[in-house]
Amino acid sequence: MLADLKGWARALKRDVLALYIAARDPRTPWLARGVALAVAAYALSPIDLIPDFIPVLGLLDDLILLPVGIWTVLRLIPPDLMAEYRDKAAQFSKKPRSTAGLVIVIVIWGAALLAAGWWFFARPAT
């Protein structure tokens, strides 16, 4: 069972890199490129939307959101193109980083903090 989990994790990492490649290839359908870009940017971001140190919730984004996003994109990309992207992803020696994903996560956290501050401090006293 442990070997199956490790294999699944390796396939997930390879597919994230394949989506990174697919998002930049003009042969990929435009909807698939957009979704692939969003999934790859989030997956390759150095920080998570929900930090991993938060019990249970911190791992849910990695265990649920990423596989669902990858599955969605896989349904939008033709199988022959996806096979080519997976072959290219297997040749990557170093995982790329996503600055766009980092910025998006920081903006979401900033908006959430502003909304919480507004709710806490700007609402009328009762």
Structure description:
With 126 residues, the chain is mostly helical. The chain has one domain (2-121). It contains 5 helices and no strands. It has helices spanning 2-22, 30-43, 57-76, 79-90, 99-121. The longest helix is centred in the last third of the chain and has 23 residues, at 99-121. The mean pLDDT is 83.
Summarize the structure.
Helices cover 71% and strands 0% of the residues. It is built from five helices and no strands. The longest helix has 23 residues, at 99-121.
Topology:
Blueprint: H1 2-22, H2 30-43, H3 57-76, H4 79-90, H5 99-121
Helix pairs in contact: 1-2, 1-4, 2-3, 2-5
* Secondary structure tally: strands: 0
Secondary-structure-derived class: mainly alpha
Principal-axes shape call: elongated
What's the SSE pattern?
A: HHHHH
Q: Overall pLDDT, averaged?
A: 83
Alpha-carbon Rg, integer = 17 Å
Kindly state the percentage of residues in helix.
over 70%
Main sheet properties: none
Q: How many structural domains in the coordinates?
A: 1
Determine the number of helices (DSSP H or I, runs of at least 4 residues). 5
Roughly how many Å apart are the termini? Answer: 56 Å
In terms of per-residue confidence, which ranges show pLDDT below 50 for 5 or more consecutive residues? none
Pfam families: DUF1232
Protein name: DUF1232 domain-containing protein
InterPro entries: DUF1232
Keywords: Membrane, Transmembrane, Transmembrane helix
